[in-house]
Amino acid sequence: MGKVAVDPVFERALAAEIAASELLRMRVIAVTLAVLLVADQALFLFWRSAIEQFLQRPVPTWLPLHVVGWFLAYEVGALAYLR
User: Fold this and answer.
1) Domain extent listing, the chain
2) For residue 2, is pLDDT > 90?
């Protein structure tokens, strides 16, 4: 099967569209992680006894920040780098 010639203008437009959609995807993931972090942190702050009763062991209050925070930091850092 032969190689089909593609217009360079189309390739640039496609690359720009892909880059724009990736930035949008990264923003959506960052916002979702931020909302999840705030919700989890509120849960660990205000309903700590229920969580400890469910897990049957004490848990630190900063646990959501330790788990979700790294993912959020990665997404925000990548967004800042790509802008």
Assistant:
1) 26-82
2) no
